[in-house]
Amino acid sequence: MTVAVWVKVFDGIVLSTDSAGTVPLNGGGAQVYNNADKIFHLHRRLPIGAMTWGLGQIGPASISTVSKTLRQRFMGKDQTRPDWSLKEDEYTVKEVADLTATMFCDSMKQTQHTDWPGQLGYLIAGFSAECDQPEAWLLEFEGPVDEVPEPKLVASTDRWGYEAYAQPDAVDRLFRGYDQTLLAQLLQVTPAAHHADMINLLDQHHRVPLHPAMPFPDAIGLAKFMVETTSGYTHFNLGPDTVGGPVEVAGISLHEGFRWINRKHYFSTELNKGELQ
């Protein structure tokens, strides 16, 4: 499991994740590794990024490897798919999301499995060409790979706010006052005629932790705080630490583009000069 968070304000959108990767063992139980890559820059010259949660690999390739292959295509470096090269003055984030969905489905079908061996979430965020506000599109994969899923717009250019995925309980409890499990149980024991009132009552406990005019560095701090809080919350609950490891953060803004704020490397950057994004 994991936690993946986006925070959007007027100045841009922030992506933040932990680094835990949980691998089920054949004899039962699970192994947790704390160095999984979950945030990706999808084009070195464009303000587009992605983050992932859930399934950590497709066949023999990690989601990180698949994402970097996808970046090669978007940058026109994959000779087998020259038509995927993004036109820097015409592309849209929705176009990037559609192509991503196609590649992920194609990759899964090549493994000769008819079903996804788990759930996979993948969020594409950034600025479309000639647009001064960011947006985010969500891809969700689960079940038979019969058709390419349609991306869902979860953060339009005129929307601001935040969202946590995969293990959102800590963030939901902290700022909403309840998690989705409690909501489902309350609705289950409440007559349907009162569901709207119940949801309205609970929504009154929501404390929105940001303002659309919040400075971008503060939005970055908020996204990081949400991941760190979830990591501590998970650590002190009984059971495996399914959220943990280094916290990674990337900010995407109009003029600075995609910028790493926190990032881990398995190698020394001093010994490896060149493009490291």
What does this structure look like?
This protein is an alpha+beta fold. It has one domain (3-167, 211-262): Glutamine Phosphoribosylpyrophosphate, subunit 1, domain 1. It is 27% helix and 26% strand. The chain is built from six helices and 14 strands. The strands form four sheets. It has a five-stranded antiparallel β-sheet with strand order 12-1-2-13-14, with helices on one face. It has a five-stranded antiparallel β-sheet with strand order 5-6-9-10-11, covered by helices on one side. Strand 1 (3-9) and strand 2 form a beta hairpin. The chain is globular. The two termini are 24 Å apart. The model has no long low-confidence stretch (mean pLDDT 92).
